[in-house]
Amino acid sequence: MPITPLDEHGHRWAVTTPASTYLIGVEIDPVTGEAAPLQKYWGPRLSVEAARQAVTASGGPATPLGARRHVSSFSTPGEIEELLPVDGGKRWGSPSLQVSFDGARSLELQHAGSSVHDEGDGAERLDVVLRDAAHPFEVVLSVRSREDTDVIERWTTVRHLAGREPVAVGVTRLDSGSWFVPDASAYRYSGVFGAWAEEFQLQRGPLPVGELVFTSRQGITSHQANPWIMIDAGEAVEEHGEVWGVALAWSGSWRLTTTHRPEGGVAISAGFGHEGPRWTLEPGTELSTPPVLGLYTGGGFGAASRSWHAYTRRHVLPVAGEDRPVLYNSWEATVFDVTEAGQLELAKKAAAIGVELFVVDDGWFGDRDDDTRSLGDWWPHRKRFPHGLRSLMDGIRGLGMRAGLWVEPEMVNADSELYRAHPDWILRMDHRRRDEKRQQLVLNFARDDVREWAFGWLDELVTELDLDYLKWDMNRPFTQAGWPELGAAQDRLWVDFTRNVYQVMARLRRAHPGLRIESCSGGGGRVDLGILRHTDEFWPSDNTDARDRQGIQHGFSQLYPPNTMSAWVTDSPNPTTDRLMPLRYRFHVAMAGVLGIGGDLTTWSAAELSEAADLIEQYKSVRRVIQHGLLYRLAGAPGRERSAVQYVLGDDVVALVYNPASDAKRGPRWLRLTGLDPEAEYEVVHGGDAAGWPGRLVRGSRWYGSALMAVGIRPAAWEPVGADYRSDLVVLRRVRP
């Protein structure tokens, strides 16, 4: 069973996953009666008997908080191990929960009971209930564990209980939970940072003593940071070492705080919101957080990523196991100049090279001739499509492809019929400007009428055009994020906005089970495990330069699986960086995820179109391995050195090999594969002699897995002499006796 009680008092539990154990318990101060739910252990899996010994050694239900650490009159170090440290009592660290009652900010919680629930399909949930000693306020800490994943889910619910003496309850911080990383001689953090067109840049460094905060105050996940972190002792590498990871499944503003105590120990608390907003709870109401997820592995950063990928595929994605189609998007070819004839010309060329899904981007609606007008007017462009879009969509389907459209439901231009009819629908504050970004204002999706309007036109659009796909974009963060009509309660918009976006997407999917949705926010501004419960893939960056994309994709893959990563082949020189690059290299980089085409096919030569068709056919032959296989990141720094990514699914092995610089003197020279059966033989299916490797890998030759992993292969793309931007696709298949 995933959750096992360890004592007769209902104070200790073992939360078990296939490879880890997470021990928690409620400690009660014998003097004050205050309850402190604590983490007792998080690491390699223990038997139930060993777990019971571990919690017994750590103290009984009446153990004073912090008794195992040095305590002075100036600190209570044990608070770092609390599942939800509150603001109150003898705590001075960063709180996960901060509440005020009629202006008095402090909590004193008592244990009100706990229960374990069987949720079916190998999942169990533990609820620990706490209540304030004086006020009608309840906190429920929930923990879910599943039999098929090492990811543990946690969340928190707070309630203003009805039926007792009225009191004003204000919540200024409500994190989903805090995770304690066991004591170590040193701590290192891993995360990603970025900017528009430079998202998911991996960074690793020593975790400083004190508090380190990663956050977004933008109302979206943001390009600047992503809501996850991994912690190790500075010793983990790609395939070895202990790693603890925490990720927040939320698509609005968020905050992740690490606390490295001077006495030792690290805690990670994460939740929605940021400093400033205050949520008022009326009697009889509650507020629940999004899940915060924890993962332990002893197999290094690679094993951590593969565990996150497996969890995402099984328990996050709306539809599991699908192969993503090869996509064409018309944006870079036509920008706003969208016409039926022009789109069909592109569609014919796309179909001819093997594209399976054609997406018409911005410019199809209202009077949308540039980005200054018509956002919000979601009907076909009156001049360009006087008879609607059905003919265009039927034309695309007649070529054997599925059909999709770009939409931006959360935005409005001031020059639009929608804004003129509903100027009160935007985020705004009394006596303040209405600042525009990208000539856009933000619709207040927290409003029920805005939510219903959005669902209505989206449902009608998908129904009338029989759409297969929506590229859902969101091209600016919040400004003047107010809702004056709600007065003191208006800060709830920071939560309800995101939840209403989720709701519209969920309703669309229920009404149209075949619809697939891509999450985009000016590139990678809304990539997270919250929005992914309602979408199928992400657009990680507007930067389609293959060399830059290698670094972006490397950081993206730390948490998110390849079948959620849309990657396009665009023109050379690249429209963002002006860099020249061979078509083969551009394709091989885009093949590392969900392959898409975004270039202007009307300008590609016959030779380029023929090469593109061959490469698309190659991708389709290995697509399932790339999109659903185990991912291994091999060799040097992607985009800067010789590097490779490898995928294993059953008997099939695929490696994409890159060398961006011909004059590189250092870096890896032999590519050692991993994740293979050392005793089995592997036959070369693709990438042998045809790739210029006579005497090394020859198509049809067989190699033991042990040789491929211990010695490796020497790809032609890694030879010391040759042009810049060389790449290879290597395909092997295990030969069974």
UniProtKB/TrEMBL annotation:
Pfam families to which the protein is assigned, alphabetical: Glyco_hydro_36C, Glyco_hydro_36N, Melibiase
EC main group: hydrolase
Assigned EC number: 3.2.1.22
Ranges where the Glycosyl hydrolase family 36 C-terminal domain occurs: 643-732
Keyword Hydrolase: yes
Domain of life of the native organism: Bacteria
Lineage summary: Bacteria, Bacillati, Actinomycetota, Actinomycetes, Streptosporangiales
Keywords of the record: Glycosidase, Hydrolase
InterPro entries: Aldolase_TIM, Alpga-gal_N_sf, Alpha-glycosidase_related, GH, Glyco_hydro_27/36_CS, Glyco_hydro_36, Glyco_hydro_36_C, Glyco_hydro_36_N
PROSITE patterns noted in UniProt: ALPHA_GALACTOSIDASE
Family of the protein in this entry: Belongs to the glycosyl hydrolase.
Biological-process GO terms, alphabetical: carbohydrate catabolic process
Protein name: Alpha-galactosidase
Residues the record lists as binding substrate: W196, D361, D362, R438, K471, W472, D473, M474, N475, C520, D542
Ranges for domain Glycosyl hydrolase family 36 N-terminal: 37-282
Catalytic residues, chain numbering: D473, D542
Species the sequence originates in: Nonomuraea muscovyensis
Molecular function terms, GO-annotated: alpha-galactosidase activity
Catalytic activity: Hydrolysis of terminal, non-reducing alpha-D-galactose residues in alpha-D-galactosides, including galactose oligosaccharides, galactomannans and galactolipids
